[in-house]
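Lab manual, section 2.4: Encoding a predicted structure.

Procedure: take the sequence of the chain (404 residues), apply the prediction step described in section 2.3, and record the output as structure tokens. A sample record is shown.
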Amino acid sequence: MGNRTSEPEVGQRSPDADTKNPELIEGMARVMTTAKERRTANGRVYTRQEKEEEEEEYNYRDSALILTQLFKKMDPAVMKSIGDVMGELKVSIKFKADQSLLLVKVVGARDLSPKDLRGKAANPFVQVELVPDRTGTGTKLTNVVRKSLNPTFNEIFAFPLEADHLVETKLRLIVWNHDTLGDGDFMGERIVELGDLEPNNVVTSWYPLQEETDLSISGTLDISLAYRLPQLLCVTVHRAAALVCREPNRPPHPFVRVMIPGITMVEQTAVQRGTLDPEWEQTYEFPVPQEEFDYRYVVLNVCDMSRDGESMGEVHIDLCNFDPEQGFTGSFPLADMRNSDRVRTKWAQRALLQEFKEAMYAHSAYQFPKFLFHKHSGHKVVSVSSRKAGCQAKVRIIGGVPIS
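Recorded output:
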């Protein structure tokens, strides 16, 4: 994973086709402003050493851009892992009941995670939206603040919203890093519940940023818990209902992973193919002494085999109130639990993602391979592949300019 002269492959454009795109040409013109032109605009005469240092900085910046694009194309999640999500977002919120209007002021952010390879800066902007978007207002974006980890925005956005819909509507704030060649890089988000807003009162707060939350998850999971002496917790997975369908006309192939963090066992149900309402009726046993109930909890993760085990929602069940004599049977709503405060076992793909991140850092720190970290000219294609992950990526360079 990683966080986006031969004949072109099927499905790919040729370099000549890229040069006919007006938007790409405009972008190329901006990128191709040379160091010499910038010095002339500044009206200052530079020494030879200063010129060499500036040219080296310019070449490194272009090469680092190519490197990040290669890893992002292999796996877009790699840029989400550069530096942990950190920082806070200051927002003021007011609901004007007489106008059925929600006002959101994005004030600023602080202590954001740097997104360049040298860990020094970012070009942040904020995406603001309501979930669900009942009126079709769409997404709002602040301006980009360049080279800052403590940006100030002071921008106000208005969203039509009826008072009756406050409880079931969420305000989603996402901080992105502006990327010249591709999509923005995720820097963190915050989901704000609007149900507690008092009409016409202004609420201003610093909101700690969190990992990305999947709000499209839906459905429920029915389970039972029983206890058998001396120390066996029996978890029965009955059924799920109304699961999310991520691809039209292609129902998922759901299964459930069952685990108790701290216990080295991960169980998995059978795969039920092509259904949003699967049934399993499968039971698994875990060794859990009763004296550990206070800090143990059960994790049930519904996954889709047709999408490489992608999560369709989780349920976390605390054992602190579990009565081993009575047992328990119930239905739980599925949710994205990645922002839970709990410390959970990480799956194998997290380890592979970490390897991608470290590889990208290493290439940048040692400026290797050498052909990548020098001034580029002409037309060429730079590619990278990973046999372990089974993926590859390419970035085209046209006239010395990297094109996504």
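Check your result against the sample. The first strand starts at residue 88 and ends at 96.
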